[in-house]
C-alpha cells in the first residue's frame, strides 16, 4: 500500500490560499494538514478558526487539524465546526488525554495524538486503542523547513510494535523534514501518513512532488 500524503498548508502562499488548496484538490494528496499554533505551546503563531473555515470552503480532501496549543479541549468543537475531520492534540498539552480523545470521538472526528521529539512513545501504551492517528514530530514543532531528526526511525519502529501488540488500527503520521530521500525509510519503519510542507510548496511541480511521496 502506498503512503498517505498530507501537504501542510503552513508552507503555502497565504496570499493565494484558495489556489493552493485547489492544487492539493487536484493532486493525489489524501489529507490537508492544518497546523494551529498559539505562540504559547510553540514559539510561533500560525492561524486559527477563520482561516481553517476558509480552507474548508475550498477543500475536497479531509482536513487533518494539528493543534499545537495549550488547553486544546476548549477548542475541539470549534475546530470540528470549522471543518476538521481529524483533530490531533499534543500529549504534552493534555492533563487528561483519555478524556480528550473521547471528546474528539464524540464530535464525530478521528482522534490523534502528537508527540514532540523528546516524548517517548511508551506513554501511549495505555491509550493506543483509543487513538486513530499518532503524529510523531520529526522536527521540533513551531517552524517549517527544519532538518529531519534521525532518531525518528527508531521511534516509528517502536510505536509500530506497540500498535501491533495491542491489536490496534492506529495510523502513524510523520511531521517535519519529510522528503523523497527519507520517505521510503519512514514507510519501511512503519509510517502510514507523510506530512510535507516546504518540500511540496517550494517544489517546481508540487503535484508531481506529492505523487512522488505517494509511491513509497
UniProtKB/TrEMBL annotation:
**Which CDD domains does this chain map to?**
RPE (cd00429)
Which gene is transcribed and translated to give this protein?
rpe
Any one GO molecular function term:
D-ribulose-phosphate 3-epimerase activity
For this UniProt record, give its keywords in alphabetical order, as a comma-separated list: Carbohydrate metabolism, Isomerase, Metal-binding
Q: Does the keyword Metal-binding apply?
A: yes
Q: Which residues bind a divalent metal cation?
A: 33, 35, 66, 175
Matching entries from PANTHER family are given as: RIBULOSE-5-PHOSPHATE-3-EPIMERASE
Q: In which pathway does it act?
A: Carbohydrate degradation
Q: Which function does this protein serve?
A: Catalyzes the reversible epimerization of D-ribulose 5-phosphate to D-xylulose 5-phosphate.
Which family does the record claim for this protein?
Belongs to the ribulose-phosphate 3-epimerase family.
* Essential cofactor(s): Mn(2+); Zn(2+); a divalent metal cation; Fe(2+)
Protein name stated in the entry: Ribulose-phosphate 3-epimerase
Q: Which residues form a coiled coil?
A: none
List the Gene3D superfamilies: Aldolase class I (3.20.20.70)
State the active site: 35 (proton acceptor), 175 (proton donor)
